[in-house]
Design brief:
Elements (H helix, E strand, L loop, with lengths): L5 E6 L5 E5 L6 H14 L16 H17 L2 E8 L2 E10 L9 E8 L8 H15 L4 E7 L3 H9 L3 E12 L2 E11 L13
Helix pairs in contact: 1-2
């Protein structure tokens, strides 16, 4: 996979143009704002499905971005970011398991979209491209974890071919209350798993 590769551009539900691409080094300032938006939102949105809670600095995010770009170059990370209004407003990746050749065909999916940009159709588009690219890269099984209360995300994953594996009760303790997480997986060799070419 190539750093900065552009997959597609399209009009969002509100008529703006979004670009789906891999991350690049110049995204650093935008990524700091991206992360810190979630840190701020977590104060009021108890069920926000991100677990990082510390504000990003240019230095801390530069380290994360370097690891991400190195992973993209090596083929260990499949990445699709969404750019809108000149900012990174969504990011998704499938990180391959690389600690053993026996599990290199598997990966773990993560996705996040900034508040104010949800409901525009970005998530479905990003995930379809991400799953197609993972399939091309030889990934066969993808796992993810989602908060059980996040029914919108669960429905989207199910439409894309993910199946529920199980629930871990009380996995997250946030502001004195427990949240359950659900584990889901998709078999990318299964033709029923959604493709970027269909079900838009």
């Amino acid at each position: 996979m190539r750093v900065g590769r552009v997959y597609s551009s399209f009009k969002t539900r509100d008529g703006r143009v979004a670009v789906l691409r891999t991350l690049r080094r110049s995204d650093l300032p935008s990524l700091v704002r991206f992360v810190n938006g979630f840190v701020k939102e977590k104060r009021t949105n108890r069920t926000l499905g991100v677990t990082f809670g510390k504000r990003a600095t240019l230095k801390s995010e530069a380290k994360w971005l370097k690891r991400m770009l190195d992973g993209i170059k090596r083929g260990d990370v499949i990445n699709v970011a969404a750019e809108l209004d000149g900012e990174i407003v969504g990011n998704s990746e499938i990180a391959r398991r690389t600690f053993s050749g026996e599990v290199k065909h598997t990966g773990v999916l993560g996705i996040a979209i900034v508040d104010g940009y949800r409901g525009l159709g970005l998530g479905g588009r990003m995930l379809r491209v991400l799953l197609d690219e993972a399939r091309r890269a030889g990934v066969r099984v993808v796992e993810l974890e989602v908060f059980s209360v996040n029914t919108g995300a669960r429905r989207l994953y199910e439409r894309l071919g993910f199946r529920r594996v199980g629930v871990v009760p009380k996995k997250i303790l946030r502001r004195g209350r427990y949240l359950d997480t659900m584990t889901m997986y998709a078999d990318l060799s299964d033709k029923s798993t959604a493709s970027a070419r269909g079900n838009r």
